[in-house]
Amino acid sequence: MPKISVIWKTLTITKSPYKVLLMKLDKSRKRLTFRSGLTCNLTWPQFRVFRDAYPLLLKYSVTQMDDDLFKVKDDKKSDVVCTSHLLPVILDLMGDFVINQVKEDTFCATNGKFTVVGSSGMLICIQELKTGEYESDCQDKVVLDVGGFEGESAAYFWSKKAKKIIIYEPVAAHIEWIKKNISLNSINAEIHEAGIGDKKGTKIIYYTETDPGFGFHSSGTKSMEINIRNVSEVIMESGANLAKFDCEGAEESLVKVPDEILRQIEYYIIEVHSLKIRDDVLAKFQEAGFTLEKETPKRSDFSVLAFRRQELLKRSFNAQKNRF
User: Fold this and answer.
1) Spatial separation of the C-alpha atoms in residues 28 and 26, rounded to whole Å
2) Residues of the chain under the 50 pLDDT cut
3) Domain presence at residue 88
4) Which of 39, 131, 139, 228 is deepest in the core (most CB within 10 A)?
């Protein structure tokens, strides 16, 4: 049952609440005028987007260009045309970024600390950064970035004064965006066109789009063969102080990494994509001598776990290294 606050907003943000009720009942498109003066021809799903984002809509200039195209502008030179699906992301980001549209699905976002170009999926990933899920001490550290997507996380870690970013990303089209963003931000980076897993080899991924949800558990009519690196080898070769794993199901392979190899990295940020994987990863890292420092919920079955190696084990590990 909808909350009273949602029902109240549904009935009060437009000048014609009866049209909203009719729209929901007969599934037709209606011309609605909001209390702010904004007038649009919307379907019920589009109205729900506008309703939920209404406080942000009041801050910017929004003009309907077509049935599902909306032009958004602000006073900081942002200028974007997007669908209703992307509209809440654009409105949310415009509070912190100047966003401009380069092509139909190519955007540039800058906030004074870093600049990134990429697809609408890249904007969704930048929005996730606002949750603080990647917040960590990167200064003068080597960061292992597994699941680099279009380079937005590498740009973020670099803006936090990282010394070097080692990026693993299996999709060739994403690698091209990564290279552009590495160049834009003058990042000291090492790029590998590969994913990670239990064993070195190749894997066929079935998918619909190579968006942020592309990964081991994707499904669809398209297919792609990707290169896979053994995750233990990746960790050992990296020399990283901090590792971020956002690889859509491939994080399961961390459970099979020997404890002594996991402990070569001080701090891990891992997005887990099911409750079972979460429990398995949590148990593995705790047994290996890590403390769960932070958990950032994303959806009912998704979250981002941040683990820190315990100091006692750190001293023991360093002593063993010195012996050899």
Assistant:
1) 5
2) 324
3) yes
4) 228
